[in-house]
From TrEMBL:
Gene Ontology cellular component annotations, sorted alphabetically: cytosolic large ribosomal subunit
GO-annotated biological processes: translation
Keywords: Ribonucleoprotein, Ribosomal protein
Gene: rpmI
Record protein name field: Large ribosomal subunit protein bL35
One MF annotation (Gene Ontology) recorded for this entry: structural constituent of ribosome
Domain of life: Bacteria
Length: 64
């Protein structure tokens, strides 16, 4: 049997907390920021927990 290799791109984008939750950065804060209001860009800061609908797929990519 070959070894399972976790998806390295997913590993760079998400982080597993001590309690087992998977957190990610919010999307939309990379470019075209001049056109977005400060309220919108402030809302995009920080991390958020991966949604329940995507959790199974992300865990599979991480090998968990």
């Amino acid at each position: 049997m070959p070894k399972f290799k976790p998806h390295t791109g997913t590993g760079k984008r998400v982080k597993v907390t001590g309690s087992g939750k998977i957190v990610r950065q919010k999307a939309g804060k990379r470019h075209l920021l001049e056109g977005k209001s400060s309220h919108v860009t402030r809302r995009m800061t920080g991390t958020t927990v991966v949604d329940e609908s995507n959790l199974k797929q992300v865990k599979k990519l991480l090998g968990r």
